Amino acid sequence: MKNTNTCPKCGSRDILKIPGYTGAYGSGNNIPLTFSTVKVHRYLCCNCGFSEEWINVEDIPRLENKFKR
Ligand SMILES: [Zn+2]
């Protein structure tokens, strides 16, 4: 969906990109880490409501640090 701009569920091309952000006290669409947050970007199909969440590749090492066992 991020790459094709087409909804995999219904085939619509009416895709909305909703950028992740971090607001006051960790509000917003993100994953909280100990001293920072990782933003989560959403892609929403305006036709059927399907949504996908994506995280920037450069943020992944910080998630691995925290969540990898
Ligand atoms: Zn759709």
How would the global form be characterised? elongated
Cα separation of the termini: 30 Å
Radius of gyration using CA atoms only: 14 Å
Strand residues, percent: 25-35%
Summarize the structure.
The chain has 69 residues and is of the alpha+beta class.
Describe the structure.
The strands form two sheets. Strands 1-4-5 form a three-stranded antiparallel beta sheet, with no helix packed on it. It has one domain. The longest helix has 8 residues. Strand 2 and strand 3 form a beta hairpin. 12% of the residues lie in helices and 28% in strands. By secondary structure, the chain is α+β, with helices and mostly antiparallel strands. Bound molecules: zinc ion (ZN). The site of zinc ion has 8 residues, from loops.
Offer a few descriptive terms:
binds zinc ion; two-stranded antiparallel sheet; alpha+beta; 69 residues
Please render the helix and strand layout as text.
Elements: E1 15-18, E2 30-32, E3 37-39, E4 41-45, E5 51-54, H1 60-67
Antiparallel strand pairs: 1-4, 2-3, 4-5
Zinc ion (ZN) is lined by residues 7, 9-10, 12, 45, 47-48, 50.
